[in-house]
């Protein structure tokens, strides 16, 4: 009786609410910043982005389009690349929190999100260095410049595609199956466009197509699995050390 009275006076111990990205104000602010970046860039460089996509699809033989851009256009494009990395980190963060809830319970969310963003930026930097090095060895400077522009164009538009995906992922509780399907579709569609551009720029015959398939697997498919395994290893390391 006395125990019940003390419990009534002291109150019951509350159950801790599990971490959820949709309740995190920091994630909301980050997505709002991405929205304002997209709106700002579209208002200032919409024609430039449309021209980039036309050049990507039509495969025009020309000098580097970046030679005709202004410094402001370059800053806007760098913002779009950063936005793509941020949204990719947010999507990865939300997916892995759903798969492994202990990540949100044991690791500060902003540290985890920062780690994923750093991995995305390092991966992008590695791809940029690799493309530049291989282009310098095997191809002429004009083709390499055209490919780098095309790759950048895909990154810009991938950021626009990732924004609604991130919103649905964070705030509408997409099922794990839907998340995986949409994520794989975006990745598959991007890789198909990359392979299409490789054929247009670097392939002259059937033998060249076979070589391109090998290079494509080595530079585009295998690194994705390596990065995924690396992210899982980083998660295990963080769980052990926090």
Structure description:
This protein is an all-alpha fold and 242 residues long. It is 83% helix and 0% strand. The chain contains eight helices and no strands. Helix 3 (71-99) crosses helix 6 and helix 5 (109-138) packs antiparallel against helix 6. The chain is globular, with a radius of gyration of 22 Å. Residues 1-12 and 63-67 have low confidence and may be disordered.
Strand content range: under 5%
**Rg, nearest Å:** 22 Å
- Helix-strand sequence: HHHHHHHH
What proportion of the residues is helical, as a percent range?
Answer: over 70%
Shape summary: globular
Structural category:
mainly alpha
Low-confidence stretches: 1-12, 63-67
Write down the overall mean pLDDT.
Answer: 81
**First-residue to last-residue Cα separation:** 42 Å
- Would you report the number of β strands? 0
| Largest sheet data | none
Count of helical regions: 8
State the gist of this model.
This protein has 242 residues and is mostly helical.
List keywords for this structure.
single chain, 242 residues, globular, disordered N terminus
Task: List strands and helices in order, with pairings.
Elements (H helix, E strand, L loop, with lengths): L1 H9 L14 H34 L12 H29 L2 H5 L2 H30 L2 H31 L4 H27 L3 H36 L1
